[in-house]
Amino acid sequence: MPRLRVTAVLFDLDGTLIDSYDLIAAAFREACRTVLGREPTEAEVTSRWGEPLPVRLAAVDPTRVPELAAAYTAAYERDHDRMAVVFPGVREMLAALAAHGLKMGIVTSKRRRSTELAIARFGLAPYIAAAVSAEDTSAPKPAAEPVLEAARRLGADVAAIGVVGDGAYDVQAARAAGARSIAALWGTRDREALLASGPDYVAERPEDVVALVSG
Length: 215
Prior knowledge:
The chain has helices at residues 21-36, 42-46, 53-58, 65-83, 90-99, 112-121, 145-154, 168-177, 191-196, 206-213; strands spanning 8-11, 18-19, 85-86, 103-107, 130-132, 161-165, 180-184, 201-203. By secondary structure, it is an alpha/beta fold. Helix 1 (21-36) runs antiparallel to helix 4 (65-83).
């Protein structure tokens, strides 16, 4: 595997560091049942995946986003510790990258409270020096702003940053910011779309990221 010379690595959260698909889908379904009195279609549950929560909820009913968000948040926080898990190999990857002296951060479209909940629950704080969430920039991924903000917080040259993510938005945001992109195939739910987005590098497993950036 060719080596990538970077001083920092940014990770998406859902689908990259933590496996939270079932939790997010269940909370979305419960919000629709509670507020709208109906079961959402599978297309509604899976569409706009990776976009900020208000955008996903507005696609279901733009007139009831605050109520839907409140119901979603209640279900999400209630079931978080039971349903979300760290992907196998992620903790070992983070420890190895830290041992190589690389700075690390999170760039997610998730809300700040949910991001902080995951960082605390899964013991990620010792590795994560900056976390940029939905409230921290005016434009989410695939815009460059979240990556640029994380670079600023880390004090890193964006050209020397690798962005690891499971979605096309992660690749596009990295490209827009001038960073390098690494497709996280271990967590993606749409491998074809992720590869079609043109990532600079591909990692089948978390340990592949270590091999890629630590040489």
